[in-house]
Amino acid sequence: MMVKVNETDLEAQRILAIAIALINAKRPLPTSYFYDNFYPGRDDEVRRKSFQRDRYRLARCGLVVKRDVSAGAAAWAIDRTSLAQPNALTPTEALTIDVALLPFASEPSFPYAEDLRMALSKIDRSFSEVTVARLHQRACRRSRAQELVERCLSARHALRITYVKADDTQVERTVGVCGLFSLRGVSYMVAVRLETGQEATPAHTYNIDRIVKASELSRLTYDIPSDFEVRDYIKLPFQIGHENYLARFRIPKQLLHEFRSETRGRGDFEEIVRPNTGVASSSKDGITNASENSPQASGPLTSNTDAVSGHSRPSSTLMQSEHITNTDVIWSITVCDTSAAASWAIAEGIRPIEPANLVMEWRDALERGLATEVVPPLHASPKGSAPSVAETKWTLPYDKRSNAVSSRGRRSGLQEARRLVALLGALSEDGDSISAAAISSRLGIEMPEAKKLLELVSSAGGEDGNYLSLYAEEGQARLTLMEFAGTLRGLPLRLTEDETVALHAAFEALGTKADDPLRIKVESSYASPSISPEEVRRSLSLASSDQDESVVRLCSQALAEGYGLTFSYQGTCDAEARHREVKPLCLRRSGDSWYLDALDLALKQERTFRTDRMTDVISREKDAEFVSQDASTDPNPACVKTRLAAPETNHADSPVRSAADACPQREVGLRFSDPRYLSLFTWPGLTPVVSKRRGITDGCDGTEEGATFDARILYYGNGRPWLARHVAACRGTVATDDRELAQEVRQYISSLLGE
Fold first, then answer.
1. WYL domain spans which residues (predicted)?
2. Tens-place pLDDT, residues 265-319
3. 37, 230, 630, 639: which could form a disulfide with 462 (CB 3.0–4.6 Å)?
4. Dist CA 545 CA 97 (whole Å)
């Protein structure tokens, strides 16, 4: 199992070898031991600096090394507080946590993705087999700018940035990062200015993609204000601009639940009540969410203002509008970009009511959308050849000004060392094994890299010849620990501070309460006590609903224990909720929603269910009655084996597939001629079309006259209006190669214009 290694690999392997020596030492080891075994042939000054640097790297891996002078000479031992409580969790509990939280690590908008993967690798230390429950998506690519921002927030170190403003000018800032959030796939940081002599200023929001140069200032630290809440700074796409006025929209009640989730509760919601007198009025009882934390908006209003709450009330003229019914809800929110707000309303299926200029812009956008064209077929790219939309320069032309941040260069051995030390923790008892397939799946890396890690573990040791006693099965990329008297082994480690922050953030994003018994058990056994969950919550906007958490927990437990699930489900094509019995296959996130991929036992086909539409969820053991409904007695039917054989085909961003039979799906081509709509809206699973001749994305250069961007996306046919609404919102700047989709776009627009 020989693989090619480089200098970075050997540095990471040396850190692993030092960890093995320290964990298995019966007494503190003298400095000379490390010099002779790990830095042979170097002078003492180089050895001293190298050992100092490696101790720092070990601490970043979770293994703190402390000096012991009790014997009269300098010696070194591990700080026992670095070790986690052995067997603190049952294997099922550890797997449940892994299944529930790891989808966040595959989500580009989630901070600390790599730290979360490492945290879960220490909590769930099984790297032996690839199972459906442990089948995860590949790690998302993150820019160096985002990694620096996350690290500075965690360490409270200042950040020096060169930033491209909205007017295309560059500025330099020294900032302290207070919080992070994401909207529609774009990551933002909220930061305060820290320049010397600079008067205290309010925090500002920065688009991380607009940072073209960044450096960490480790000697300049700061504190986050005690009253800071990152949720106060979250804005919707149309709330960034030079305008500032209050607008109102009509929302059908049946869309309210999902709409509030989509907007994260921003704005005020007022229910329409029509008394017997026939005069319309409004009520905020039980529905208003006064979470709009922006300054008092200005502009033309046709409403009254509540003297107590300070929020605007619809006027009687507004309430008697022919477009308002008692099945509607009025949503009031600040608008800073009229054009974006009009398009956004079309995409969401809501209707602006006032002011008049917004209504006119909305109608103009609809009329332009009627010009949606049909183009010749846009053929799919060869598998694996197309970059993601985020990797193209078409939507972010300012990236071309500098590659100081986006260029990753040669990766440090620290990340590789962290992975190796985590694998060492999985080899703590006789018979423990690690396999390349499981490493690849759980760490989100390619198989060649996983095999390299396996090789580095098997050959890690010092000049004294002390190595782990590992058995390599012939023809299998697997290592098994054989424990004899005096055999070296690993031990489970506690999480680093960064990994603890990631764990807290994932629990908050899932919506798990601080007093949840399993969360308490995990955090008390593994988390660093120096990190406050409350401080993490204030710095990140990640909360989910209570219902999401309970359903996701049940799905995670079912996957971990191999149980089936029964529940009621009403998809967008279903007239009413239907009873479902399924075998869970995968739990994942897309945007702010959770999805369960499962084998529907009645249909004998794989289906995807959105968890916030699942009710009356019950976990069922595989009793005889339940198994009899499965088409196969094989515990891993064909669709499961496909996932095990090719996990890269399981796209985390694929749109939900209906649980109903009458909603066929297929891929359609889209041609964008205006890049604004790629960032204004989320396009789940959008795959760029690559030119075989040029080897690049067609039309990805937004600076060219008349440039276009071709891509493909899943379409579920008439009756599933999501894609048609979004294309309609692009004002005729998106063409399609599917006539049915183009017809549905026109029908949707005509229905709105005809109201």
1. 147-213, 551-617
2. 788 888 765 554 444 445 444 444 434 443 333 333 333 433 333 334 444 444 4
3. 37
4. 18
